[in-house]
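Lab notebook, bench 4. Still working through the backlog of constructs that have no structural model yet. Next entry is a single chain of 313 residues. Request: give me the structure tokens for it.
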Amino acid sequence: MLLEDVVQTLKDAYDKLDPVWLEDTSSFLALMIVDGCFILEILRMNHHIFDDYAPNDPIFSNDGMLYILPFLRRDMLLLENQVPLLVLFRLIEVEKRTPDQPDEYLNKLVLGFFHSGPYPRNVGRCLHLLDIYRKSLLQESPMRNTARFLRRRRRHPFNPIEASGDYCGNETKSRLLNLIAFERFDIGDGNEVTSYVFFLTSLIKGSQDVSLLRSCGIISNALGTDEDVAEIFNLLRRDVVVDPESRLDMVYRVVSRKLRNRFRKRLYEWRADLVRTYFRSPWAAISVFAAILLFTLTIIQTVYSVLSYNYQK
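Model written out:
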């Protein structure tokens, strides 16, 4: 049969599988086949492999794909909705469409579905759709792709961080939470996404931080306001625990140290400029203090005059 020889492997892929499915193997296999066929059809429709559905189909018509597809894309990345890729491989074999490299073929379908632009290749053998999507985010080294310290440029006097753009839309919170949850349960497979979220939540404390990151092209805001983006990352901060051994935690420490050093350097520069401009000689210092004293006395006199006038009235 289609999946009978791997049914135990499929059951073992689920943590705490409901006893109903453990006991009723036929119903479990039927569920796997239905879910797998639906996933494959969605992936292929996105690539326009098939185009023979009725115009009024609620999902696979042009209107259905336009309005329903964003919600399907979000739901297919939920951790509780994952189906083992082994199911999809077996369904492809039954279709007699087995490509020379089944992993690469399926990864191409999945990544083309979740990435609107160019997507990475060669993510290797994965567990499910969420695993494919996560590994596609890790193709570049986080140290090189996420942040690096830059020399000062003329067009931007203080530009210490260059980061890959992150799109913030309605599905951002769900997507990141499910990636974090997967890394938490998949022991030994790394926690790069969790570290990246920790890094961003450390940078974003309010809407002004979002505005700065957005102006530098680090964040693309599709939520409407910068306050909405800041609220998402403030919520994510509550559940993120970063591994101190991770590469991005090291990046965060390096960037934080260099930001502090740069800030101290700016303070030193301002103080030196103040000394050179106003304290070159004792007479210049006396003139500055005299001007400050005169200005203070003028303010006091003005306030006293206003209060006296109001009291007389």
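Notes after review: Confidence is low (pLDDT under 50) at residues 141-164. The radius of gyration is 29 Å. Flag for follow-up if needed.
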